Amino acid sequence: MKPSRARSRARKSDQAPGARRRADAASPDLALTSLAATESLGRAIGCALTGGDVLALIGALGAGKTAMVRGIAAGLGVPPDSVSSPTFVLVHEYRARLPLIHIDLYRLRTDADIESIGLSDYFTDRTVVAIEWADRFLALLPEDRLEVRLTHRTPATRTVRLAAKGPQSRSLLARIDQARRPAKRPPASQTRKTPGTRKVPAR
Q1: Residues 88, 53, 149, 154: what is their CA dihedral angle, to the nearest 10 degrees?
Q2: Which residue in 12, 14, 106, 121 is deepest, having the highest Cβ count within 10 Å?
Q3: SS3 for 120?
Q4: Are 130 and 57 within 8 A, CB to CB?
């Protein structure tokens, strides 16, 4: 069977190191001042997904990883209230515009544990895979992935940085950036009403 494009990304790339670096990109640090702000960013990510995307969520306990996934799910059309952390069941699957696979690696310890849940089988062109605690097994993830790094800033706020690690995730990052931009208003000169012209009767 011919390997899928997404699964092939998990293999070591034949590109030169310089070429891989040129394919990487990152957002500036973004401040998230509330749970709603975290979910809002997640929704923008979800709306920008096209399939074959791997989202590696990285952050300490309570940093907002599951809240981010709730927003991502909402952007894909999943009711956010139905999303919970799969800490004990390890994997949740959601039917949406694109199938969403939500994985939690917190309780896994070895490569054998990873193999036992069939992680690599989820990396297909038709799915979106969101992985909490992804930093525990980064070497086993596709090289082309979007890393979502959440950091505690204050007890009530977080900082997030989105880092694209390949060409597909770089395109995704550009779409996310576009989705977050407010709609541009037309110039004032285009919104002014053109004075009506009065028709002069012919004599």
Answers
A1: -70
A2: 106
A3: helix
A4: yes
pTM equals 0.79
Give the Cα separation of 5 and 166 in Å (integer).
13
Q: Each residue of 37-86: pLDDT tens digit?
A: 999 999 999 999 999 999 999 999 999 999 999 999 999 999 988 999 99
Q: Where are the alpha helices (DSSP H) in the chain?
A: 5-8, 17-23, 35-48, 65-76, 111-116, 167-180, 188-191
Give the Cα separation of 147 and 133 in Å (integer): 11
Judge whether 45 and 128 are in contact, CB under 8 Å: no
Predicted pLDDT at 156: 84
Which is nearest to 156 in space by CA: 9, 38, 54? 38
Distant-in-sequence, close-in-space partners of 18: CB < 8 Å, separation ≥ 6: none
Confidence label for 1 from pLDDT (cuts 50, 70 and 90): very low
